[in-house]
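Much of our argument rests on the idea that a fold can be written as discrete symbols. Part of our work consisted of pairing the sequence of a single chain with a tokenised description of its backbone. No coordinates are needed to read the tokens, only the vocabulary itself. The record that follows shows the chain in one-letter code together with its fold in token form.
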Amino acid sequence: MKKLPETKSCILELDNGWLTIWFNRPEKRNALSDTLLNDIKDTVESVNNDRSIRGIIFRGKGGNFCSGADLDGIKKIASSGKNARDLAINMSMTAGSTFEVINKSPQITVSVVEGSSMAGAFGIACATDLLITMSDASYALTETKIGLTPAQIAPYVLNRLGFAQAKRLMLFGSLFDGNEAFKMGMADHIAYDEGQLKELIGKVKSDVRKCAPNAISITKRIIAQNHSVDPQKAAELFADCVTHKEGREGFASFFEKRKPYWS
């Protein structure tokens, strides 16, 4: 197989045809920095043509899947004045291209969610083929609460959850746990302890090995043809929200740990 890329914010584990991409920023609750996003994208792309890799698992070190956008990147945008829109577009495009690469991977992709899965991490969870959740994991699309929009994430959330559920979660940013994720059909499997989580991961691997890798790849390509995403347009909509007065207020209220004026 092709050599895996060097990564700065991920740990890569290859075992018996399965690649695990560990998000490795536990001190930041595995927040999605540009470096982490690029690590994920480069790794998934590096095995794109390798049918010896049967599946890719996404997990977070330190007991957390991912807390969403990196605060350092948000602060940079918030303080950049006239450059805010361009920086917001770049941030959104980086995230959007990563979601798209995950979604279009010819291998089976699996999110294993422990701890929190917020905002952009919610997008990763919905972009993968399967989602295994711990019962006490927490989820939310928090963007509208700080004056933003989950533009890049929206198509994946709609595809995974269906229109009514996705609309409710994207509009109101409701917080819910793994039990609710499983009940609403967002999560495919739920675990109540580490032993059960390990068993579920093993079962998924076993199920995948029963299917021909080329057939999986072609079937995923057929599915992807009915799933359209325009990352550029999504990035522009996100940037419009960032530069709007509500976006500026949302950032300010977040960092000042207060409610925004509309709350």
About this structure: Residues 103 and 262 are 35 Å apart (CA to CA). The chain is about 50% helix and 15% strand.
